[in-house]
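Onboarding guide, step 5: your first structure request.
Type a short instruction followed by the sequence, for example:

Predict the 3D structure of this protein.
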Amino acid sequence: MRLSVLCVATAVGILAASPALAQTVVITPEQHTMMREYVYKEKIKPRKKINQEVIVGSTLPEEVELVPVPEAWGPTLRTYHYVYTGDRFYLVEPSSRRVVHIE
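The system replies with structure tokens like these:
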């Protein structure tokens, strides 16, 4: 029985450290609309495609420029930065450069 508990505890620890389980952000439909409208109104130019597969939990390379989230997107998103590629938004935790949401 002790061995089973130890195996489960080890498995949980490994999974918790996995990038796939990194913190994610939930974007409401209203926030999604606000993000798209902001890009249109402010004439934000998309950056070229990111030259790697990007999933939630992955880390963006240093050459990818991160932009602070504008106040208009709301206080729940202000701690993040973003990258806009023309068809997608990538919300990123700036200190670690980890992707927390793909829109």
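Each response can be followed by summary notes, for example: The radius of gyration is 17 Å.
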